[in-house]
Specification:
The protein is an alpha/beta fold. The protein has helices at 19-30, 42-52, 66-80, 103-128, 156-179, 196-208, 214-223, 233-244, and strands at residues 10-14, 34-39, 57-60, 85-88, 138-143, 183-190, 255-258. It has 2 domains: 10-191 and 232-255, NAD(P)-binding Rossmann-like Domain (Rossmann fold), CATH 3.40.50.720; 193-230, no CATH class. Helix content is 47%, strand content 14%. Strands 3-2-1-4-5-6-7 form a 7-stranded parallel sheet, with helices on both faces. It starts with 9 loop residues before the first strand and ends in a 6-residue tail after the last strand.
Length: 264
């Protein structure tokens, strides 16, 4: 991993108990930041915080609930003594052809991926802006997806939610600048990662009949990727650390593809 100095910084990562979120938590901590994991998975989140050691913590957070955000943000600020970095990572993907669209499943993705990210931006702004609980500015990193930039079958609503995160990012960065909040807002477009979500997607598109097998689905993604491989959790986590660091001080309102060229 690329070393970036985050000593003295404090961070909150949503959906940080496992998967990509866990990789981001560990990378931020390795770079020197004190991290609070925010998740609905209390046991996993608390255990991860314990493995990180003193100075790190866990808070329960339902990203779709405004009151839960208020409580989690206040708890994180109290535990960390401030907040410099928010990573809006929590998300869900439910595979479906448009012809088989389930409105309840669509609402779940919209609520978690779009509303959850928007509420995170809201509460980070209120915390980080002048006059807020911390008031020193900071950085917000939203996790979009390569799905926002390509037309891959059976992930229409997921793709739409990740495209929305891109738009939220750009509008939020402009609002922050115009209102003098001192908060940079960027997003990352991860490529397909062979974790539980990625494996589930490959299995789903094979089950639907879009590919002969899960292996063929994965091979198709690799075939669309100039780098010739899937992304690793560390690839994505390194990008988050970069956007959280002073090395990206003049990067604002941007979307950073970490997809091996798949979305170009």
């Amino acid at each position: 991993m690329t070393p970036m100095d985050l000593n003295g910084r404090t961070a909150l990562v949503t959906g940080g108990a496992q998967g990509l979120g866990e990789a981001m938590v560990r990378a931020l901590a390795d770079a020197g930041a004190k991290v609070v994991i925010a998740d609905i998975q209390d046991d996993l989140g608390a255990k991860l915080a314990e493995t990180l050691g003193e100075g790190h913590g866990f808070v329960h957070l339902d990203v779709t609930d405004d009151v839960s955000w208020s409580a989690a943000m206040a708890s994180a600020v109290a535990e960390l003594g401030g907040l410099d970095i928010l990573v809006n990572n929590a998300g869900v993907e439910i595979t479906s052809l448009l012809v088989d669209l389930d409105p309840d499943q669509a609402r779940t993705m919209l609520d978690i991926n779009v509303l959850g990210t928007a509420l995170g931006i809201k509460h980070a702004f209120r915390t980080m802006r002048p006059g807020g609980a911390v008031g020193n500015g900071g950085t917000i990193i939203n996790i979009a997806s390569v799905a926002a930039t390509i037309a891959f079958p059976a992930i229409s609503i997921y793709s739409a939610t990740k495209s929305a995160i891109d738009r939220l990012t750009r509008v939020a960065s402009m609002e922050s600048g115009k209102l003098g909040y001192g908060v940079r807002v960027n997003c990352v477009y991860p490529g397909l990662v062979p974790n539980r979500m990625g494996a589930g997607l490959a299995a789903d598109v094979a089950r639907i009949g879009l590919f002969p097998s899960t292996e063929e689905a994965v091979n198709a993604v690799v075939g669309l990727t100039p780098s010739g491989r899937l992304a690793s959790p560390e690839d994505i986590a390194d990008a988050v650390v970069f956007l959280a660091s002073d090395k990206s001080a003049f990067v604002n309102g941007a979307g950073l593809p970490v997809d091996g060229g798949m979305g170009m």
